[in-house]
Amino acid sequence: MEYFLLITGFCFMIIGILGSFLPVLPGPPISWVGLLLLYLTKGIEINYWVLGITLFIALFVAVLDYIIPAKGTKRFGGSTYGIWGTNIGLIIGLFFPPIGFIIGAFVGALIGELIYDKKDQNRALKAATGSFLGFLAGTFIKLVVCFAYLGLFISLVWENWNVWF
């Protein structure tokens, strides 16, 4: 059972990192579940402070993930069409690695803004840039948190290596 929890927790860490890029997966909360699974093993003493603080951070970043792109889009004069375009372009861009999701997010935001207002291409370009910058900022924050959780996971496994092996 211990090995199952270890392997499953590590898989949640990897899925959480992938979730930092994918809009349908909440990366930091998924990574937090990986930490929780690690703490449920008999080799690690449960630290409620660490679990509570990391849960708060994961939920805070998950909420910020919805606020940052919207604020970036609004700051640059965009609409909800740009936000939706960013997410749709991101998903389509995933089928064109390695940088398809980045280009897809920008192109999707641009198309979304052009659908909203075909007459003002400059505003659409500016709004698409804001939406894209908001997406990049949110992704960066999620990645930092997920990699921090992965580092905590690995350090706890390393410190308690002799318990399992």
Which properties best describe this structure?
single chain; about 160 residues; mainly alpha; elongated
Commentary on this structure:
- The two termini are 14 Å apart.
- The chain has 165 residues and is mainly alpha-helical.
- The mean pLDDT is 87.
- The chain has helices at residues 2-19, 27-39, 48-75, 80-93, 100-116, 121-159, 161-164.
Task: Please sum up the structure shown.
The chain is mainly alpha-helical and 165 residues long. The chain has 7 helices and no strands.
Question: Biggest sheet: strands, sense, closure?
Answer: none
Q: N-to-C SSE series?
A: HHHHHHH
How many helices? The count is 7
Terminal CA distance: 14 Å
Q: Determine the mean pLDDT.
A: 87
* Strand content range: under 5%
Cα gyration radius (Å): 19 Å
Helix percent reads: over 70%
Sheet/helix structural class:
mainly alpha
Overall number of strands:
0
- Poorly predicted tracts of residues: none
Topology:
Blueprint: H1 2-19, H2 27-39, H3 48-75, H4 80-93, H5 100-116, H6 121-159, H7 161-164
Helix pairs in contact: 1-2, 1-6, 2-3, 2-6, 3-6, 4-5, 5-6
